[in-house]
């Protein structure tokens, strides 16, 4: 069972990854001819350690733990470094965490 403190870390990690990916999606729209990693599939394909799309999806889901090595590979694959990730991670508010938790619950209810 995942402890509450760990859940917050998992959620903050997912929020941060989504923020960085959304930034890449915006860049891709602005520069369509540039090869920018802007999807889970591109992350999996471009990773240097053979990540599967399912592994990438899990990291972005906010539900399951991901190994630190997986997170670092994803961050670097998107063209960011740990300092940039940490800066975004530290900006996350309690309101964003609560909103994300509600989103996870709603997604689970839709699947049931």
Overview of this structure, please?
The structure is a single chain. This protein has 112 residues and is mainly alpha-helical. Helix content is 72%, strand content 0%. Helix 1 (4-30) crosses helix 6. The protein is globular and about 40 Å long. It starts with a helix and ends with a helix. The model has no long low-confidence stretch (mean pLDDT 93).
State the main characteristics.
6 helices; mainly alpha; 112 residues; globular
Radius of gyration equals 14 Å
Taking pLDDT < 50 over at least 5 consecutive residues as the criterion, the unreliable ranges are none
The amount of helix comes to over 70%
The main pleated sheet reads as: none
Structural class: mainly alpha
How far apart the termini lie comes to: 21 Å
How do the helices and strands follow one another from N- to C-terminus? HHHHHH
The amount of beta strand, in percent, is under 5%
Anisotropy-based shape: globular
- The count of helical stretches stands at 6
Average pLDDT:
93
Total number of beta strands? 0
Topology diagram in text:
Blueprint: H1 4-30, H2 40-46, H3 53-61, H4 68-77, H5 82-91, H6 94-111
Compact summary:
With 112 residues, this protein is mostly helical.
């Amino acid at each position: 069972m995942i402890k509450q403190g760990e859940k917050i870390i998992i959620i903050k990690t997912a929020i941060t990854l989504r923020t960085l990916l959304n930034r890449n999606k915006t860049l891709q729209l602005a520069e369509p001819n540039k090869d920018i990693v802007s999807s889970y599939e591109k992350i999996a394909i471009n990773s240097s350690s053979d990540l599967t799309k399912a592994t990438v999806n899990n990291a972005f889901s906010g539900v399951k733990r991901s190994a630190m090595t997986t997170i670092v590979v994803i961050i670097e694959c998107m063209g960011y470094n740990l300092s940039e990730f940490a800066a975004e991670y530290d900006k996350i508010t309690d309101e964003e965490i609560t909103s994300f938790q509600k989103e996870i619950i709603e997604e689970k209810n839709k699947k049931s």
